[in-house]
Amino acid sequence: MRSYRRIALFGGVYSNHLALSAAIEDALGRDVDGMMCLGDLGAFGPHPDRVFPLLREHDIEVVKGNYDDSIARGLDDCQCGYTDPRDNHFARISYRYTFDNTSPENRVWMSNLPYEIRFRLGDLDVLACHGSPRQTNEFLWESTTPTHFLDKLATDYSADVVVGTHTGLRWNRSWGEQRTFVNVGALGRPANDGSPAVWYAILQAEARDMDVEFVSVAYDHLALAKEMRDEELPEEFVETILTGWWTTCLEILPGKERAAGRF
After folding, report:
1. Which of 106, 110, 123, 162 gives the lowest tally of CB atoms within 10 Å of its CB?
2. Is the pLDDT confidence value at 208 over 90?
3. DSSP state at residue 241
C-alpha cells in the first residue's frame, strides 16, 4: 500500500484533456507527492484517447468509473441510470461518441483498472472509489447523504477517509473520531456554478490530522469548445463548458443542488 503526505485527487475527466493537463501542472506546483484519478475518463468531451497519455506520463493511478467499465466491457450504455428521455438522449450521444473514439488498446487498459485503491495518508487509511465503496455508480450528494450512512460505509469498508467523485460536485464532511468523506469534484465540466473553471482536491495529513483543500482550475475552455464543435458534439455540451451551467443530465440532481444551478 502506497503512503502519501499530500496528494492531489482528480474527479471525472469526461475527455477534458485540456483541464486534466492544467490540473496536473497546477498540482505539481503545490508540493504534492502523489496524484490519483477517480475514474470516468470519457464522456461529454472530444478525443477521449488524449486523456490516457497524460495519466501514464505522470504515473497517475486510476480508479475505474462506471463509464470506464462500460467502455471496457463494450456495454450498450454508461450505467448512469437516467430515466428522463431528454437526459437519456444526450447520454446516448455522449456514450456512443466516446465508445467509437476510444482505441482498443485503451479499452483493454481500462478493463484492468481497480474499482478501489487504498492508501495511507499520514496515519489515516484512505479508500478511493468512484461513486461509493459499495457501488461504482452510486450518487452520494451532500444534501441527501446522511452522516450515519457515511459512517456505515467507513465501518463496513474499514476506512478512516473515503474519497469519490461521480456526482461532479465537490463537498466534504467530517464526523466522529476523524472520519471524513470527500467528493473531489470533477475536471470534465464545471460545477454548475456559472464559472467555466473546474475543481480538484488536495488532501494533506500529519499523523491523523487531515486538511482538505478544493482547488479551482482555469484552463483553455474556449479551445475545448472549439474541439467539441469540430467533432460535432451537441451544442448543449459546449454551452456547459462555456457558461459553467449544466444543461443536460439534470434529473439526477436533488432539489437543493438543482436549485443552485440555472436550469
Report:
1. 123
2. yes
3. H
